[in-house]
Write a structure and sequence with these properties.
- The chain has helices at about 5-25, 35-50, 55-60, 65-90, 110-115, 135-145, 160-165, 190-205, 230-240, 275-285, 300-310, 390, 455-460, 460-475, 495-525; strands at about 120-125, 150-155, 175-180, 185, 210-215, 240-250, 260-265, 290, 310-315, 315-325, 330, 335, 340, 355, 360-365, 370-380, 385, 405, 410-420, 440-445.
- The two termini are about 15 Å apart.
- A hairpin with a 2-residue loop joins strand 3 (about 175-180) and strand 4.
- The chain contains 15 helices and 20 strands.
């Protein structure tokens, strides 16, 4: 037994060391079995050493092999302390690196802008069965990471906190309650897109009102089943805290003063002179107009109105070559492009957007003081502007690049800022408590089909571009960005208990067993 005294002493020191390390890295260490067992075992082994092996241990310390073994033990302990210290520092100064190619663990730019712009604290309370949902926890923590000073996150089990469920009006799980000041909102299908829209809803100071013109064959905002309708666009706006209303343009005396923006999504009949006059008067009052005018839509009044505001509508249709497998190049009237101008609306756009049956829309502000026009989107170099529009829409459509046609790249969307005073326009006085408008804003696309129900379902970035245009028009720059992806990558998810087990095994138990085994093997060899 005396020969084993020194072994008891070394193992006692090892167990005490890991016990004390556990007190620094584990929550509530005195209630943790691992910490308690290590401290008890270490104390017991040291008592055994004091009882049986003190003199032997003193002689052992003087041997050269002991010094080498002690050096190895010190290096091992230093390595363990380095790992523990790294975990401690990372917990105090947390930073994330998303190494996936598509950035699937990173919030979309719009989500970041929304939470970074918060002025008050936002409490995000997730309700999930069993109180555990690693994917939802990770999503909510991403918002907290983007704005740690204002976002507080908590995930609870609704069965354990029924009073909180009743207070926050939770009816299904999973759900997320968003509390911002006195405003609250429950997201019933939590994903990044729906959570961000919920934050916009509770943090928005006032709702912006967007009118959609009706009465001249414009796209229907009520019919979700119509591929050419704009019900999807209406829903997307409402999800970002806009209020959407129809406006019968032919019978309107003027564009309402409460209009944050007016959308004209295609016109099947020519606008009357009265309609053109109230549109022009609206812009001169500092209005915000989104016009989507396709080939053969409207008459000469619309191009003349837009020309006065720095936009040139082409009397043409853009043709682009489409390469299909086993067919070779064919002619297409749905240009696909990822060439964008430098503008807040198209900032960070890198993927493709689609423009079915579009005419050219070009900046025409050169030499016009007060107007700044920017081409937002350009088609490929293989495209051209076909001037024989009726021939393309005939029963036997044909198109060829003739001398009068213009080669691409071609602009199909334009944004305009108009400084009213520089244009010699004096807007009417603003209502009491509001600032008089200083500029008008205008965005024009060469097709209403790029944001209809069909395209919003098929091309995600088309919807982003439409919403960005509205956000820029009404001055809500925090809503101008790439929207979030609704599909997040699959991954291995660990429950809290599983994560704790991995921590114990990798950081504490396995290193401790390796050191203890090394001490035992070394001691056995020395005892022979």
């Amino acid at each position: 037994m005396r020969r084993s005294g020194s072994l008891f002493g070394l193992l006692g020191l090892l167990f005490l060391a890991f016990g004390f390390v556990g007190t620094f890295v584990i929550e509530r260490p005195l209630h943790d079995p691992y910490v308690v067992l290590n401290l008890i075992a270490g104390g017991g082994l040291l008592l055994a050493y004091l009882s049986f092996g003190f003199e032997e241990f003193r002689s052992l310390l003087g041997q050269r092999s002991t010094r080498y073994g002690a050096g190895a033990l010190v290096y091992t302990l230093l390595f363990v302390l380095l790992v523990v210290g790294g975990n401690y520092i990372s917990a105090r100064r947390h930073h994330r690196w998303d190494l996936t190619e598509a950035g699937i663990y990173t919030l979309a730019p719009q989500s970041k802008k929304v939470v970074e712009a918060l002025k008050e604290d936002l409490a995000m309370t997730g309700f999930v069965e069993g109180g555990q949902d690693p994917q939802l926890q990770s999503l909510l923590e991403s918002y907290q990471y983007a704005a740690p000073g204002h976002v507080k996150v908590r995930v609870v089990d609704p069965d354990k906190e029924p009073a909180l469920v009743e207070q926050m009006k939770i009816t299904t799980a999973p759900s997320v309650n968003l509390q911002y000041g006195k405003e609250s909102f429950v997201v019933t299908k939590p994903a990044e897109e729906t959570v961000t829209n919920g934050i916009i809803r509770v943090a928005g100071t006032t709702k912006k009102l967007v009118y959609f013109a009706e009465g001249d064959g414009e796209a229907d905002i009520a019919n979700q089943d119509d591929p050419k309708g704009y019900a999807g666009a209406k829903l997307a706006l409402e999800q970002e805290n806009y209020e959407v209303k129809p406006l019968v343009l032919p019978s309107a005396e003027q564009i309402p003063d409460d209009a944050s923006a007016l959308v004209i999504a295609g016109v099947q009949r020519p606008l009357s002179e009265h309609e053109v006059q109230i549109l022009d008067a609206y812009l001169k009052r500092g209005g915000h107009l989104l016009a989507l005018i396709g080939p053969r839509q409207g008459d000469e009044r619309v191009p003349r109105l837009l020309a006065d505001w720095g936009v040139k509508l082409g009397n043409d249709i853009v043709i682009d070559q489409v390469v299909r497998l086993f067919q070779g190049p064919t002619l297409g009237v749905q240009p696909i492009t990822k060439t964008y101008g430098t503008h807040p609306i198209t900032q960070s756009f890198q993927d493709y957007t689609v423009y079915p049956q579009t005419r050219t829309v070009e900046p025409d502000s050169a030499g016009k003081k007060g107007l700044t026009a920017t081409a937002l989107v350009k088609t490929s170099a293989s495209s051209w502007a076909e001037t024989k529009v009726d021939q393309v829409f005939s029963q036997n459509p044909t198109a060829s690049l003739d001398p009068e046609d213009r080669k691409g790249p071609l602009s199909v969307a334009v944004a305009v800022e108009a400084k009213l005073h520089d244009l010699g326009i004096t807007p009417p006085p603003a209502p009491e408590g509001k600032k008089a408008p200083e500029e008008a804003r205008l965005v024009v696309f060469g097709t209403p089909m790029f944001a209809n129900n069909q395209q919003l379902a098929e091309a995600r970035l088309n919807g982003d571009l439409f919403l960005n245009a509205i956000g820029w028009l009404v001055g809500q720059e925090e809503l101008v960005a790439i929207r979030s992806r609704t599909v997040r990558a699959s991954r291995a998810e660990l429950t809290r208990d599983q994560a704790v087990q991995v921590f114990y095994l990798s950081v504490l138990i396995v290193p401790q067993l390796m050191i203890a085994t090394g001490i035992a093997v070394w001691w056995r060899r020395k005892s022979r």
